[in-house]
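From the shared-data thread, chain only:
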Amino acid sequence: MTEQTDEPQPRPARIESDPLGPGLYLVATPIGAARDITLRALDVLNAADHLAAEDTRTLRHLMDIHGIPLRGRRILACHDHNENRQSAAVAAAVAEGRSVAYCSDAGTPLVADPGYRLARAVIAEGGKVIAVPGASAVLAALSVSGLPSDRFIFAGFAPQPAGARRKWLSHLSAQDATAILFESPRRIKQTLGILCEIAPDRHMVMCRELTKKFEETLRGTAAEILAQLPEAGPKGEIVLMLDRPDMTAPADPAEFDSELRRLLENLSLRDAAAEIAQRYGIARRKAYQMALAITNTSSDRKE
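Structure, as C-alpha cells:
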C-alpha cells in the first residue's frame, strides 16, 4: 500500500542467482519496513529475466535498498491504467520461456492492487503463475486485531459516493464474518460516521501505518474510534475491521422492531429485510414480512 522508506543497506550475503523456470512470479513486497521482504523474494528479483512493477521507481528503490542490480534489465510499468495492454507482452515473454517478476507498490499483488489481468493473460496462454508470498496489510491487521480470524471478508475500498458507501457498509456489516476494508485518511471520518448509525454497538479495530514508525491501533465502537482521531483527520494507510454481528435475535421483540425501523429509514424494504435476516439468523422471508408490516402501518398512520 505504501512506499518503502528505509535507507540503502549493504547487499545481503544470501541472494542466489540460479535461473528461474519460465512463469509469472507475483512477488509480495513490504508494506512499510523494507526488511520485511523475504529471502526468496530477493532471490526472484535478482534472477528474473524481466521485471514489472506497478511503480517502477518504488521497485527500483526497494532493489537499491537490498543491493540487487538491474544488470541491464528494464522495469516494465504495469498499473491500473495500462494492465490490459501490458498483459500481452508479459504473457508473450512467459510463452517464450522467460521468467517475469511482478511487484505492486507494496504488499501482495492482486490484493486491492494490479496483477489480476497479468495472471489471467499468462494462464490463458498456458503459462505458469507462481506466488512469492510475503507481507499483506490485510493479514497483518487481522493478526493484531484480536477479532475472530476463522472466517473473514476482505472488501477492498468502500465506494466514494455517500449513498453507495452507506449501502455498501450496511451489507458488509451484516456478514457473519470479520469484515476488513481499506480506507483513505480523507474519508475515514465519513465512514466511521456512517458506521455509528448502522452498527453503533459493533466492536471495531482501526490500524494505521502498519509496520512503520508511527504505527497505531485503535479499538472500540465507531464512535469511540472517531473520538480518538485528530480534528484534521489521521495520516497514512488505514485498515478498518468490524467484528461479526451478533447473529441471535434480541430477546425483547420491541428491540427487534426498533432495529428494523431504524434500518428502514435508510434502506429499501428489501435491503433492510435482507440485513436483519443475516444479522439475527432468521429467514429472509419472515424478515421481509415484518418489514412490510411496519411499512404498511406507517402508511396507514399517514392517511
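The first helix runs from residue 39 to 47.
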